[in-house]
């Protein structure tokens, strides 16, 4: 991932990057809406890079049909499902555009916003991100947990991400090259976008319902995604136990001093079984949590040290590779 593969094709202005998994039902309407945007911006040249993230339905075959009719449609087929973050990284690596726009195939993020993204880009912004001001299409629980995640993440990290800003955004080539220069294997793209910096601006929009199909995300996957995001972006969960451990040790010293004084003044007291059990369970639970957090980071170190590729490309369609 550290090597930047830049295909020499200066004719492309905007690369639209779409990572998808089992989305054959959504493809027809998606390309219809994207082509409307392209036709409304004829002074710019476009390419549509579709990453088939190991789909097991007819997504790849249907993508090939679109690619035969339109050479702007380019396909990267993964050997298996690697995840959306890695699909976006592949899109950045193989895109030719002076800027790139990651977008979901389900059309919850409206394609017509692309025109506004390009306008802001022409004003000199290196990154133009969408801000979801209305998420009524999501369940109440998902809205609450998303709000909680943004607050916790921004509290813990030094490079906060805008509240309710997703992956849907325009990214200038200089930002793309900065992202591709990273060598890490554990990727949280929203955090990376925030970490890179550059001149940025947000555009508000209303998040729509899915155009077709069903979401591939469930709450367990979202929980693990949030956990990956935090551990990939900050070491604060490790550092906080240094402070808490110090407070617990200090409290233990004061309590021990109190017991010694009470014993000297009142004599030896019968020890309380209940209080002793509470302290043992409390400290034991804290130690297990600490070990769990350390284990999360050790596991990620293990993945980094193995240095495996973050994805495997099985096939490419409509690409002209020049290193």
Name its key features.
alpha/beta, 8-stranded mixed β-sheet, 8 strands, 323 residues
Explain what the structure shows.
- With 323 residues, the chain is α/β, with parallel strands linked by helices.
- It has helices at 27-39, 59-69, 84-94, 113-122, 140-156, 173-180, 189-196, 219-233, 236-266, 273-306, and strands at residues 14-20, 46-52, 73-78, 99-102, 127-134, 165-172, 200-206, 313-317.
- Strands 7-5-6-4-1-2-3-8 form an 8-stranded mixed sheet, with helices on both faces.
- Helix 2 links the parallel strand 2 and strand 3.
- Helix 5 (140-156) packs parallel to helix 8 (219-233).
- The radius of gyration is 25 Å and the shape is elongated.
- The model is unreliable at 1-8 (pLDDT under 50).
How many strand segments?
Answer: 8
Which residues form runs of ≥5 with pLDDT under 50?
Answer: 1-8
| Total of DSSP H or I helical runs spanning 4+ residues | 10
Global structural class: alpha/beta
Distance between the termini: 14 Å
Please state the CA-atom Rg, rounded to the nearest Å.
25 Å
Average pLDDT reading: 76
Strand content: 15-25%
What series of H and E elements makes up the topology?
EHEHEHEHEHEHHEHHHE
Q: Largest beta sheet: what is the strand line-up?
A: 7-5-6-4-1-2-3-8
Shape: elongated
Characterize the biggest β-sheet: 8 strands, mixed
Q: Helical content, roughly?
A: 40-55%
